[in-house]
Write a structure and sequence with these properties.
Blueprint lengths: L1 H30 L5 E13 L5 H4 L3 E9 L5 E5 L2 E7 L6 E7 L2 E3 L4 E9 L5 H11 L1 E16 L2 E2 L3 E12 L1 E3 L6 E2 L7 H22 L1
Antiparallel strand pairs: 1-2, 1-11, 1-12, 2-7, 3-6, 3-8, 4-5, 4-8, 8-9, 8-10
Helix pairs in contact: 1-4
The structure holds 2-acetamido-2-deoxy-beta-D-glucopyranose (8 copies).
The site of one 2-acetamido-2-deoxy-beta-D-glucopyranose (NAG) has 3 residues, from helix 3.
Organism: Fraxinus pennsylvanica
Keywords: Membrane, Transmembrane, Transmembrane helix
Subcellular location: Membrane
Length: about 210
């Protein structure tokens, strides 16, 4: 009698743990987030356009960009903090030539949006750049995008996470981004966030299990 009683209890306990496991898995799946994708769709440097040798264009020291922000999650929104864009000339990140800030905004489920602007540059060695595109036909610019994002799950917001991505843009002697396709900006630490979330969640599950089992 005592045996069948304890067997029932073990069964009950097993199914309880199983249900708990399933719930945890479901919760984990529905709380999983991924950062938005950022890509440079257009990038124009009019003064490097070799076929347009008018002095107004040659002295136009602006760049035009079009950056796409893409939230690919079908059931979560993204709230962007102020977006800081920094542009660099050359092969490394030690030569900033322009800044631009995009005010923060909210982006709904599975939405994408573009931010475009003309920015004035400072300190580009224009003659050398022009010579370089003329000689070897491309010159490199770099873009760094830095912001903080929080995710909206149903009516709740997560805490903010850093979103810092960058990329290289080759410009040819038409003054245009060489690659017709968008250039995806990449992070140095691609899986940090999802990794962290997974860890946090494991801790929660273990704590819940402990509380119920002890
Ligand atoms: C470069 O200049 C030529 C001549 O003015 C113009 O037709 C062309 O559209 C310009 N290219 C770009 C990318 O603006
Ligand atoms: C522009 O450059 C082309 C060839 O590079 C030259 O034939 C033309 O005369 C130049 N035009 C001006 C206004 O300098
Ligand atoms: C300078 O180039 C930008 C594109 O980067 C263009 O919008 C602007 O009209 C140009 N300005 C002049 C004076 O040509
Ligand atoms: C970065 O570029 C500048 C100018 O092109 C150069 O002087 C410097 O040595 C470069 N730094 C690195 C770390 O490559
Ligand atoms: C970009 O912004 C920083 C700080 O706000 C400033 O120190 C720097 O001079 C700016 N660079 C350019 C090229 O405007
Ligand atoms: C471009 O070529 C010219 C001669 O054709 C040369 O004097 C100059 O140093 C070269 N510039 C670069 C940046 O390669
Ligand atoms: C963006 O720039 C502002 C002003 O320089 C700064 O306060 C903010 O922390 C920057 N944001 C990020 C994510 O770097
Ligand atoms: C420069 O790149 C643009 C965009 O890919 C392309 O349309 C253009 O033909 C290129 N110009 C040259 C001279 O290669």
């Amino acid at each position: 009698m005592a045996e069948s009683g304890s067997g029932g209890c073990v069964n009950c306990c097993c199914s309880f743990i199983f249900t708990l496991g399933l719930t945890a898995l479901f919760l984990w799946l529905s709380l999983r987030t991924s950062k938005p994708t950022c890509s440079v769709q257009k990038f124009l440097v009019p003064s490097l356009n070799k076929t347009d040798n008018s002095t107004t264009t040659r002295n136009n020291h602006t760049i035009f960009f079009d950056i796409k922000l893409d939230n690919r999650m079908k059931d979560k929104g993204v709230d962007y903090d102020t977006i800081n864009l920094t542009f660099f000339y050359g092969q490394n990140y030690s030569f900033p030539i322009a800044n631009y800030t995009v005010p923060g905004f909210y982006q709904g489920h599975d939405k994408h949006t573009s931010r475009k602007a003309v920015v004035e540059t400072n300190g580009v060695p224009w003659e050398a750049a022009f010579e370089a595109v003329s000689n070897v036909s491309t010159v490199a610019f770099r873009v760094r995008l830095a912001t903080r994002v929080k995710f909206k799950i149903l009516v709740f917001y997560t805490k903010r996470h850093n979103l810092i991505v960058k990329g290289d843009i080759q410009v040819n002697d038409s003054g245009e981004k060489m690659n017709k396709k968008g250039i995806k900006l990449k992070s140095n630490a691609p899986h940090q966030l999802s990794h962290r979330l997974r860890l946090e969640f494991l801790v929660v599950i273990l704590t819940v299990l402990m509380i119920f089992l002890l």
